[in-house]
Amino acid sequence: MFIDFSQYEVKAPKIKAYKCQACGAIYYPAPKVCSQCHARRDPVTGKGWETFDLEGLCTLLTWTRAWNLPEGYTKKYLLFGIVQFENGLRASGRLEVENPVIGMKLNATVIESDERPGKPVKVFVFK
Ligand SMILES: [Zn+2]
Hints:
Largest sheet: 5 strands, mixed, barrel
Organism: Gracilinema caldarium (strain ATCC 51460 / DSM 7334 / H1) (Treponema caldarium)
Strand content: 35-45%
Strand order of the largest sheet: 4-5-6-8-7
Pfam family, one: zf-ChsH2
Domain ChsH2 rubredoxin-like zinc ribbon: 12-40
Number of domains: 2
Bound molecules: zinc ion
CATH architecture of the largest domain: Beta Barrel
Helix content: under 10%
Shape: globular
Distance between the termini: 40 Å
Number of helices: 0
Number of strands: 8
Protein name: ChsH2 rubredoxin-like zinc ribbon domain-containing protein
Oligomer: single chain
Structural class: mainly beta
């Protein structure tokens, strides 16, 4: 008997970075105007700009521990970090390591976070 597993496939959430097609400059989050060549990015059509998944190897630039989380969180605190990806882009997100050290290598993944009230949002998780 053949079981089709494809229907159970869960697509991993991704966060997009942006690339100006005119000059190749990359951005996250998306700018309105390319700071290198001043090409405009139409926020609706995104014409002239490519997107790509921002993920993978990154370096921890700084981090902080947030206490007193809003009601609904089951943890005492959360760690947040700012990282730099190998392509130079920077992003902030949740840090899931025991003892963060600035400069340490991390791997960035994306989760759909529904811990907060409202719609789930995509957040970076650095491990
Ligand atoms: Zn440009």
